[in-house]
Amino acid sequence: AHNPADAINLDNGRPIFIVHGTADTRVSVNQTRELAALAQANGANLSVWMPEGVGHVGAMFVFTNQYEQTLVSFFKAALK
What we know:
Layout: H1 4-9, E1 16-19, H2 29-42, E2 46-49, H3 59-62, H4 64-78
Parallel strand pairs: 1-2
C-alpha cells in the first residue's frame, strides 16, 4: 500500500502530474484537492488537471486530444 501524500512529501523537486475527473465516483476528487493543498504548503512541484464531468480515467476518452497534449507537454517539460 502506498500513500500518495508520501510522493508529495518526498518529491525532491521532481515534477508530479495528477489528472482527476470531477465526476470520479471511485476516488474522491477531494483527495486530489487535499494533495494539491499539501503540495502548495510544501512547495512541491505538482500540476493538476481536473476535467469537469469526467469519471475515473475518463479524461483520456472524453478529452482525447487535450489529454494527449496536456501529458505530452508535461513530460516534455519534466524530461528536458
